[in-house]
Write a structure and sequence with these properties.
By secondary structure, the protein is mainly alpha-helical. Helix content is about 55%, strand content about 5%.
Length: about 575
């Protein structure tokens, strides 16, 4: 050790640490300003379903074998072979998924709106980090949240109604209004409990359980009398809470006839004769029907149309029961909308509620009328929608973590794993509280939240982990301006541009008729080529081509905005 000379490091001058801090701050700012490509891609795919992709898929699936006669015998043979060897679900089943269910149940089209709200939640942690990295104080972040939520509501109001002044006929609630209110409230919850994930999860659970109890236990006050609000009535409904009421496609119904009780003691001949006479005069006991549910049957009916019971059906539920509370006419959620939402409700096409308020129609309970007095984006259903946005924020916080602390593959595992857990919770909750997008009920929130998390995890894996940016680019162009195309298409008629570029080409090159196969040429005709064969019109392929042309025009417009770096935000 002797003879070695130790040299002390130079004393800090105060400039180097400040420079390092500035460099670190700039790196954090640049990282916070980066966009998540998979988020834009999934949002764009979702928006394409709204502006025409779902209609295109339904139109293609609804094609019949006979439609391919416009391409001759080869077209018919190719279509027949394709139908025979198609490994997936039938085209008719796919087509049904491109439409909403009327009440209970779930189809793909019912997931578009909640996925949009979920992705709006996912983007908030990134937006919040960006604002804080750019030096924006917390009070300005809160003001921006408030302004964005109210802006979405106002834009949605005008989108829904256009500029009109017949206020009694205007619809107050709508898709963008629902998103604006739910996202804004979820964002404030996220800010208040930003570093307490467990607390946010407990808030989600509290909202969903409270909403479940509110819908099932509380009947509509304009439907049921005071007897339905007694402690005895609430206790009776509470006993019905865990009854399996999910529709079952393969349910088995057994008939059970109660057995007669055997006599307790031996009787004399006269007494036995009297007993037999009394038994003969006593009417036979009514059979008891027991429904056996199956996992397969519940799962099959979950993604299918489940018609509402007829009012005169023997199985129509009694007033004040849980089953009646889950019908449109008896649901307290629709009661809140009937009483407190101004304007016209979505399903009330004739505005009967206004006629009742004006005294032009009786306001006594009529189940057939009350079934239409509802809105799928109502006021009360906004509260469980908060959970959809908050789930997006929780998963967005996972994606925003540093890759050194949480690898990208681990993020994918978290999204898919918790997504599967939410799917399971939603399904089992569906058994006693059937999934219903109109009510945005608790089982719907869990199931669609899980579906959205899995979809985001797969998209993130493909685009941000495996770096397949080319795969998501066509959708990202739409996703980066999704609000713009959603609103502008309501104001600007894109069909004029579509017809300008594609109308002549479609009418000229896409066939729309074929010879009648049942027409027989008279054998006495010497020149069959001179006979005018009647033609059968088939405009399905031209309709499909027109839909594709409309999507192309919309995408090119969005690509032009993308190249000009023009992005519309609220």
């Amino acid at each position: 050790m002797a003879g070695k000379k130790y040299v002390l490091p130079p004393a800090p001058t105060g400039k180097t640490p400040a420079l390092d801090a500035a460099v670190i701050q700039e790196k954090l700012r640049l990282k916070a300003n980066q966009r998540l490509a998979s988020l834009d891609a999934l949002r764009g795919l979702n928006m394409l379903c709204i502006i025409g992709l779902a209609s295109l898929i339904a139109a293609i699936c609804n094609l019949q074998i006979s439609d391919f006669q416009v391409f001759g015998e080869k077209g018919v043979k190719a279509a027949t072979a394709f139908r025979q060897h198609w490994p997936g679900p039938t085209p008719e089943a796919i087509s049904k998924q491109m439409d909403h269910v009327s009440w209970d149940g779930l189809r793909h089209h019912d997931t578009i709106f909640p996925l949009f709200l979920f992705l709006a939640g996912v983007s908030f942690p990134f937006s919040f980090a960006k604002q804080r990295a750019n030096g924006r104080p917390m009070w300005r972040v809160c003001v921006k949240i408030l302004i964005r939520g109210l802006s979405l509501f106002i834009v949605g109001y005008f989108y829904q109604n256009t500029v009109r002044f017949d206020f009694g006929e205007l619809r107050f609630m709508g898709v963008l209004q629902h998103i604006g209110l739910a996202w804004m409230l979820a964002a404030f919850i996220y800010l208040i409990f930003a570093n307490r994930i467990r607390t946010q999860v407990l808030i989600c659970a509290f909202i969903l359980v409270s909403y479940w109890l509110f819908v099932t236990l509380v009947p509509a006050r304009d439907v049921c009398g005071p007897d339905a609000f007694t402690a005895k009535a609430f206790k009776a409904r509470a006993a019905q809470l865990f009854t399996v009421r999910a529709p079952d496609k393969y349910a088995e119904i057994d008939e059970i006839i109660p057995e007669k009780k055997a006599p307790e003691a031996e009787q004399s001949g006269a007494e036995a004769a009297e007993t037999e006479t009394a038994a003969a005069e006593t009417p036979a006991p009514e059979p008891v029907y027991v429904t056996k549910h199956s996992f397969k049957g519940i799962l099959a009916s979950m993604f299918d149309e489940n018609p509402l019971p007829a009012f005169d059906a023997p199985d129509y539920p009694a007033l004040g029961t849980v089953d009646h509370n889950l019908l449109p006419e008896g649901c307290v959620v629709n009661y809140v909308d009937r009483q407190y939402v101004p304007g016209r409700l979505y399903h009330d096409k004739k505005n009967l509620r206004k006629a009742m308020r004006d005294g032009d129609m009786e306001s006594t309970y009529n189940p057939e009328v009350w079934r239409t007095l509802r809105d799928p984006e109502g006021l009360a259903s906004t509260f469980p929608a908060i959970v959809t946005a908050l789930l997006g924020m929780l998963f967005g916080g996972v994606l925003r973590r540093d890759d050194l602390l949480c690898s990208k593959m681990k993020k994918v595992a978290i999204l898919v794993g918790y997504g599967v857990l939410l799917l399971a919770i939603g399904f089992f909750w569906h058994m006693i509280f059937p999934i219903n997008k109109n009510l945005w009920n608790s089982s719907f929130v869990c199931f669609v939240g899980g579906y959205s998390a899995i979809a985001l995890g797969i998209t993130y894996l493909l685009i941000d982990v495996w770096r397949l940016r080319w795969l998501g680019f066509p959708f990202a162009v739409v996703g980066m301006n999704c609000i713009a195309i959603f609103v502008i298409r309501r104001i600007v008629n894109f069909s004029n541009a579509r017809d300008f570029f594609f109308s002549d080409a479609i009418s000229r090159f896409v066939p729309n008729e074929y010879p009648d196969p049942n027409f027989v040429i008279d054998p006495s005709v010497t020149d069959p080529s001179a006979v005018d064969i009647p033609m059968i019109a088939c405009n399905n392929f031209q309709s499909i081509a027109t839909t594709i042309a409309g999507l192309i025009v919309s995408w090119v417009f969005l690509f032009w905005l993308y190249k000009k770096r023009i992005f519309f935000k609220l």
